[in-house]
Amino acid sequence: MKPDYDIAVIGGGLVGTAIAYGLAKTGQRVALLDEDDRARRASVANFSLIWVQTKGLGMPEYADWSRGAADLWPQFRDEIAALTDIDLAFTRPGGFHLCLSEAEVEARSSHLARINAQPGMTPLPYEILGHNAVREMLPDIGPEVVGASYCPLDGQCNSMRLFWGLHTAFHRSGGHYLSRHRVETLAAKDGGFIAETRAGTVAAGKVVIAAGNDSGRLGAMVGIDAPVRPQRGQVLVTERMKPFLHYPTITVRQADEGSVMLGDAIEEGDTSLVVGTDVLAKMADRARRMFPGLGNVNIVRTWAAQRVMTKDGCPIYDESREHPGAFVANCHSGVTLAPRHAQTLAPLIAASRVAVELPAFGTGRFDVSTVH
Question: SS3 of 300, please?
């Protein structure tokens, strides 16, 4: 078999496109196989956060991986801007997790303390602040905000520009984007891989499965067990407002163009993409309690989408033992980890060093027979 490409990346969302861009930079002939604008891509569910303070409970390597990604973001922003003239609107003022009760403050404090208490954990810098201290930094909070956690490592960007920037950078680095190429079957053949798509056959020497919630189906075809599940999230967007929120919070953030995003929904077991007014009402009410000024603005847009979640909430990066050259990459933090995927993971895939260099993220951690 003569491959059409050195590597085919399956999945044109934030994770797949970042990896494809990184591979193209190494000089590989790369095809990015995507569906179309109707795809139920997990990237639609993102909240544009570069977030560190919630990551790594149960896997300190994930905390370090996320922290390293956040540290790479300034250079990554400049790299994308130099190549594409696209401003990713990245800022890193630190971020807040606001709490509306003493119980929420205690739960937040306990969670962060448990993260830092893990063996091998690089201590996470954070503060637990009371209402008055939070108000000094976020003067528009309401009286119901009891306190918050604050981490100086957190930030935000414009994720639509990130998506656009990655695709543009991929194209300008020599990559080939193949739309309407949903992969129906994937098979190892003659030392490479054959992807049968709705638009025809694509042959490649290696393949990277970054297909979100479809990765389990595709991974099974090449000997990879990628246990992922959909988790529904919903987002509300307000009309544009004068700048008032200069720090992102985990559930409320003001975009660079002025609109405010509200995202406070975690729904298990619901694969529908239909928004639910009961959930949206609760989200809006919590946001109004945090920032009373939001009670006077209009909601202009809302949607539901499916995040990609692994069994333990941490990324999966691995290579098939049965069919070497087939890789899987799945996570729910495609914005935060974009620099890591382009600058660290992609070269490891090109060199077939993923399992060696990133063993903590392998699929073997889900196999109880390997746990001693």
Answer: strand
What are the E-state strand segments in 92-241? Answer: 95-99, 127-130, 147-151, 155-156, 176-178, 183-189, 192-197, 200-209, 228-238
Considering the domain delimited by 229-310, tell me its CATH architecture.
Answer: 2-Layer Sandwich (3.30)
Residue 249 DSSP class: B
Tokens of 7: 């590597």
Q: Where are the domains of the chain?
A: 5-47+58-82+159-227+312-370, 95-152, 229-310
pTM of the model as a whole: 0.95
CA 296 to chain centre: 31
- Domain 5-47+58-82+159-227+312-370, CATH: 3.50.50.60
Cα(138)–Cα(365) distance, rounded to whole angstroms? 41
Contact 16, 210 (CB under 8 A): yes
Are 267 and 233 a contacting pair, CB within 8 Å? yes
Q: What is the dihedral of CA 83, 86, 91, 97, to 10 degrees?
A: -110
Distant-in-sequence, close-in-space partners of 176: CB < 8 Å, separation ≥ 6: 5, 29, 30, 31, 32
pLDDT tens digits, 250-301: 999 999 999 999 987 777 776 777 777 788 899 999 999 999 999 999 999 9
How do beta strands 267-268 and 326-330 pair? unpaired
